């Protein structure tokens, strides 16, 4: 793209990375989405922190300022926790007691 050999090296590196991901059964879709959306996420994160004058207390306090943001925050936390081995173990223990 830039007439640089480093672009070719990057292309080869990501090609090898993609080959091994496919070989070991990892889905490529989430990685592609992560690569595409990471820049957008980083820009908006920086913009949000700057808008709160770089005070993380005020930033995270805003998560609980309305019921909708609180529900969305709890949903995101539950989605992340449900993907951990701790959740699977707790679920199997609950099934064993029932």
Distance between the termini: 60 Å
Total helix count?
5
Cα-atom radius of gyration: 20 Å
Mean pLDDT: 86
Main sheet summary: none
Uncertain runs: none
Described by the principal axes of the CA atoms, the overall outline is flat
Instruction: List the helices and strands in order.
Output: HHHHH
Please identify the oligomeric state: single chain
Which structural class do you get from the secondary structure elements? mainly alpha
Helix content: over 70%
Brief sketch in words of this structure:
With 98 residues, this protein is an all-alpha fold. Helix content is 79%, strand content 0%.
Explain how this protein is built.
There is one protein chain. With 98 residues, the chain is mainly α. It is built from 5 helices and no strands. 0% of the residues are buried.
Write the layout of secondary structure elements.
Layout: H1 5-23, H2 28-51, H3 56-61, H4 67-81, H5 85-97
Task: Give short descriptive properties of this protein.
5 helices
